[in-house]
Amino acid sequence: MSTEYHFVFWNLENLFDIKGSPRRSEKLERAIGSDLMGWTQMQLDRKVHQLASIIRQMNSGRGPDLLGVCEVENRYVLDLLVQELASLGRNYAVAHHDMSDARGIDVAFIYDRSLLTAEDQFSHFVMRRTATRDLFQVNFRTPKGRLLVVLGNHWPSRKGDDPRSAGYRAIAGETLAYFHERTVGVKGKQTPVLAMGDFNDEPFDASLVGYALAIRSRTKVMNATSWQFLNLMWLLLGQGMGTYYYDKSPNMFDQFLANKNLLKKTAPIQVLTDTAQIIALPEMVAQGEYPHPIAFGGMGKLINWDGFSDHFPIGVTVLETD
After folding, report:
1. What is the dotted CATH code of the domain comprising 3-320?
2. Which residues contact 123 (CB under 8 A, 6 or more apart)?
């Protein structure tokens, strides 16, 4: 009997610990302290409540089997989110690593350990002059004993569309391509690898196409002698959709990338490419001409207690056969 897994990725928009938290270093408190002004336990609890209200509705009300997240500060806020999801009755666990980002934000996974076992975790440092998020790799094992490698990404910001920032995302893309090839070399040529994240670039940008080797042609991915990814978001991009709005324009910054071992029709673990979707429930979407995500705010921005995140989550179905 086949098993379907529902995977989601969501940029949670500044899910930070409270101002003056004992879980934050003094250096980091000095660096971001002014942005945290007014960010109390009450605001944090409301933010977690709002996020959880959406996550609980995913996967037909069962919640995701694996949730990749970014813009989370530490393990504490992730544990708060898991606690808020307790009504789902899932056996959620957290895979997390404190990263070297200048703002202290991390990439992590929340997963149902009844379905997936986290065997190994690796935080891959992205070399650049200023600190940024690492690439976060977790090697999961399914109940049938099969390996599935997942790479979480949160690439350097565009900094208001500053063209000089593109080089940093190129470095991140090259790092992803390297560890994709390295993982397959170590774990075997049949290893399925799924990358997900907020790439802060569009699927057609050089950082993804030229450096991460994530393209739109399934045939080229299948026949390539190098290890490439199929970018699953191209179909949605062609419909004028986006996960993040900047200057009233939709941007497809949040993406799933699958290697050919997830695309073979005979593969024991397959990603169902036509299930890739933007999750935009009605309460998350601003009304009007530009249906952008309703942000929660914080970190120096006005807080909207009825908001969620400035990004829409994305989801995809992964099938494991007998």
Report:
1. 3.60.10.10
2. 97, 99, 134, 135, 136, 137
